[in-house]
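# nightly structure sweep
# worker-07 picked up a monomer target from the shared queue
# config: single-sequence mode, recycle default, output format = structure tokens
# input follows
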Amino acid sequence: GDHETPPLALLLSLTAAGTHPPRQIELRQIQSADVAVSPAQDLPGWNLPVPLVRGEAWDWQRAPIPEAIPNLLWGDFAPPMRLFESLPKLRPVLFILLAAFIIEVVGTHIEWAILAQEKHALTQQQEHIFHAAFGDDSTLVDAPLQMQRNLAASRHAAGVADTTDLIPLLDSAAQVIGTLNAGSLRSLNYDSGKLELDLKLAQSVDFDALTKKLQSRGLKVRTSDMHDLGDGTSQAKLTLSLEALQ
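# output follows
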């Protein structure tokens, strides 16, 4: 059909309707993303027994699908997933994330390099102090530990007690241990600059308070073998050493 002649299918439909034709025929202009909507034109001059009216533009992609019509776009006929359609929109975000990741990696490596350099400088300083105090012939493995041991040996050779000896450790801990109830200290053992106390206290929280008091005296405290004796008391071993050794 054209502007003067109606489509043959429309004529056949009206003929088949017989005495029950439609009240009107609505003429719509096709609209889609690929076809631009042209300005409204005059209705075609079809000589039909039913009046023509102009309806709104019609887009088949957006038109609602009646429930009675089966959906063929599923199963093997389902459209493929379009995961990369939104990729251009996400590209700026991806660039920002990539830049942040690169900055994080570079910053981490720079920080690691600075810390490694500082550690190397401190190690060299410790070695220099050690060799200056005990001579260049000494084999150096662990500067702080070897310096502490050599210092203790020098004090012992001069007849002076070292801070890691039993008496100085007992003196540091005595003022705290002396405040405990009688029978709280069950045993005491000293070995290699460490004082081990086997204590029995009323509650496990008492060990926390005791640990804080000993730490305030410049001692490092390590708690082990803590268990409940079943009579409302707790037992644990405290290993004391000087903070300077750590």
